[in-house]
Amino acid sequence: MFRHFFGIAWRQLLKRKFYSFINVTGLAVGMLCCIVIAVYIQHELSYDQYHAKKERIYRVVQTFRDVQPGETVSTPSPRDYQVWGCAPVGPALQADFPQVEKIVQFMSPVSLLLQRGNIRIQQDNLLFMDSTAFDVFSWKMLMGDPHTALTAPNSIVLTKMVAQKFFGNENPVGQALLVDNSTSYIVSGVMEDVPSNSQFTFNGLISMVTARKQRPDIFASDSWGYVDFYTYVLLKENTGIQSLQSQASSFVRKHNSEDKGYAIAFEKMTDAYLHSVAGRQPGVTGSTFNVYLFSCIAVFILLIACINFMNLSTARSLERAKEVGVRKVLGVKPSSLMGQFLFESVLLSLAALAIAIPISITGISLIGNLAGKELNGSGFFTPLRVMYMIGFAIGVGLLAGIYPAKFLSAFRPIAVLKGKFNPSGEGISLRKALVVFQFSMSITLIAATAIVYTQLKYLDRHDLGFQKEQMLIIDFEGDEKVRQQIEVVKKAIADNPGVASVAASRAVPGEFLPNAGTVIQGPNGEMIYKGPFIYEIDFDFIPAYHIQFIGGRNYSRNYITDSAQSMVINEAAARLFGYTDPAAAVGKKFGQWGRSGTIIGVVKDFNFRSLHQAVEPLTLRYGYPDMLNRISVSINSENISATLANLKKTWDAIAPQRPFTYHFLDESFGAQYESDRHFQQLFTLFSILAIGIACLGLFGLSTFMAQQRVKEIGIRKVLGSSVAGIVLLLSKDFIKLVLLAAAVAVPFCWWAMNKWLLGFAYRITIGPLVFIEAGIIALGVAIITIGWQSVKAARANPVKSLRTE
To answer: Considering the entire predicted model, what is its pTM?
Structure first.
């Protein structure tokens, strides 16, 4: 029976090569999309899954809310918490809860100048971390002892990539690196590079005792207000987090009772990438919405390919009607006929899979590049997964072929052999419904792509309230010699041709900012405590960035007290402290981090962070030289390469101990939207594939319909019909279906993309134009697809079609 089915199926495939090609191509592309999206989703779901003790690892999230005297403290919401917290919480948890096996803490990433001989690199993303790191996390040590590597002061563990930069193939353990031209760190180990599917990544680990020696005050048991630590907890086996969570409130009251706004909670580490809404994450986060969305896209594209198969199979029912009639007369049962037709569809599906798998190796790399992920298909196709794929292909074949098989096997042999068979209205209606579904999905993807593109264009063109173009940022990372002569350095840079202005600051827009406990006199004279963000800047920062004032003035060298007793805030900060008219905050008293004085100016709100967030309260505090890390240089657009060369010469002359490391602000600020651009690229690709598969099916269907009406077309031409009239006759039904599909696509697409846009504080409004444009594009592609075959049929010689009856 199998050989019989296979022989018939093979003859059918060869007999109708064109339709077989369309079906196999459509299914292959659909399966290809499913495979590459499955790899992408697997990668998203695999974050932090490589840790052997992952089920027992939790992280502490903390909230530092501003609570006024007498104010009722509400229960924090998940979005009130942040992962960035204080140091004392770790040791206190270890001491109070016997369920805790290990605590590991690490600080915010730092960038240090590392040197060995003539090799000098400003190495970023280095972490000060507890010695328990390798007991909690499953990072593989290649050289050195993981249990002692981070116990001694000034010891550093390098990743394999960084170790090779300095030592090549040598064993670096025990060798020294000069750090920031002043201190020697001993390499105590080399570890594997952190996997790409890790929520936080780094290039090296420095022992936490090194940080304790440098800043013992921030590790004190009463330093609950200093925030610069991430705390992870490893529970003992057969214990749960519930007991710790239930006692969190009493724990906080015991150790930090004075801060009414402070609270802690626990998050499972494996939930951190996709499911956490806490702020101040230690690394990248993903989106469950994107995972669900791309899963749906994969299903939609595969369904579109299956619909092509169903449409062509049912449309070609007349061709195979006599075959079915003869087989039934000869005694073949309907179930056997169904088996034959299902076997044909499964064979096509398996052929599509055989094409999709090798192509997907390249496709996975392409998707990885578009998504900004390190995706590799070489290890994905295990024997077990290939077996699953074969089963999946068989399922797809059955899904695509079940209706055509049932439809074809149900023909009445007497009617068919008498030539009285006509396709049923039910079959025609189903084909129309399936075409509508195909194009509604395609139009949805086209419209969604347009919305994503428009939103990103809106972000690029949005007035941020400060100058970011042609702004060069020199990263001197707090070099002491540069700090000590910061004004001399600035003047030397400013003297270069092509330099418009120079300023110094601790950070620049788009970079990580701390919060500062701040009291400001409210409208009624009361002192109000809040925790706005803080920029530490010099006299020239605000004018260099063209930030506008709405009240008051900038810091000035003409006022002696400005550097110690003055402060500038933004509009959002003024509103935070109760001022409906932000300019009214000028002249009010303030207190912040050991300083007190008067607010001298209020600047207009400017987007110092990503446009995903609204402008938040900000204080722009004068920064003493020992707090500065960046020099901002506004340069002219003419002959940038010459300006850069001159700046390098100047820098090498005045700061030879520090390499000339720089970046352009517009590039680093724009990097915040990198994931959104990847999202757009993926959407565009899948939209093209979806509309391509739909048009492939439409092309086959229109070709078949034209062949079925060839005599009608011949008669109409003999009777005087024009080519245009015949093309319209053949196309109008399909055009109506595409227009109906556009109407179906609008509400779903509007809902889904509005949900996506909620991730931006500044966003476009979805209007009808984008759906009209998407419909026009889909209609245009459909008309071209149908029109080419329609024109060919309309221009055919009617004598040939009417020669025989």
So the answer is: 0.85
